[in-house]
C-alpha cells in the first residue's frame, strides 16, 4: 500500500512517513503542491495525506485534480479548515478531514483504519 504525504512542514512529513514505514507501508512526501502532483502521478498512491494550505496552490485544488485522475483515491485533508468548509471538502472527494489541533497519532490511526478497509474491499 502506497501513501503520499503532501505538507509544507517537514517535521509532519517525516513523522508520518516514519510511523507508516514502521508499519510496512511504502511512503513518500512532497513539500509543495507542484512536487506533490508530480509524485502523485508517478507514484500512484492508494492514500494521500494532504495539507489544505500549500505553496503554489491550495489543498482543495489539488484534491480536485487528484480526484479527476483517480476517483478511488483516499484523500485525508488537514490544516486550518473552518467547520463550515467540511461539507464542501467531502463533496469534492475528501475521505476524512482533520482541523486545527489534530494530533498526529489520531491521524495515523484513522489512516491505518482506512487502509485496512481498502484492503478488505469495504471502501
Description:
By secondary structure, the protein is α/β, with parallel strands linked by helices. The protein has one domain (2-120): Response regulator (Rossmann fold, 3-Layer(aba) Sandwich), CATH 3.40.50.2300. It is 47% helix and 22% strand. It has five helices and seven strands. The protein starts with a strand and ends with a helix. The mean pLDDT is 86.
Entry keywords:
five-stranded parallel β-sheet; alpha/beta; two-stranded antiparallel ribbon; 47% helix; 5 helices
Q: Strand order of the main beta sheet, please?
A: 2-1-3-6-7
End-to-end separation in angstroms reads 14 Å
Q: Provide the low-confidence segments as ranges.
A: none
Backbone shape: globular
* Annotation, overall tally of beta strands: 7
How many helices does DSSP assign?
Answer: 5
- Named at the architecture level, the CATH assignment is 3-Layer(aba) Sandwich
Largest sheet: 5 strands, parallel
CATH class: Alpha Beta
Q: What class would the helix/strand composition place it in? A: alpha/beta
Radius of gyration: 13 Å
Q: Could you state the CATH homologous superfamily?
A: Response regulator
The arrangement of helices and strands along the chain is EHEHEEEHEHEH
- Proportion of helical residues: 40-55%
Amino acid at each position: 500500500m502506497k501513501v503520499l504525504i503532501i505538507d509544507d512542514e517537514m517535521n509532519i512529513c517525516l513523522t508520518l512517513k516514519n510511523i507508516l514505514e514502521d508499519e510496512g507501508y511504502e511512503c513518500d512526501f512532497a513539500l509543495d503542491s507542484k512536487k506533490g502532483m508530480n509524485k502523485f502521478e508517478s507514484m500512484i498512491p492508494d492514500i494521500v495525506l494532504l495539507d489544505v494550505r500549500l505553496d503554489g496552490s491550495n489543498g482543495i485544488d489539488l484534491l480536485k485534480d487528484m480526484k479527476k485522475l483517480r476517483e478511488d483515491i483516499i484523500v485525508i485533508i488537514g490544516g486550518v479548515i473552518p467547520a463550515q468548509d467540511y461539507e464542501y471538502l467531502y463533496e469534492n472527494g475528501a475521505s476524512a478531514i482533520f482541523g486545527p489541533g489534530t494530533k498526529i497519532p489520531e491521524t495515523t490511526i484513522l489512516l491505518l483504519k482506512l487502509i485496512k478497509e481498502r484492503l478488505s474491499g469495504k471502501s
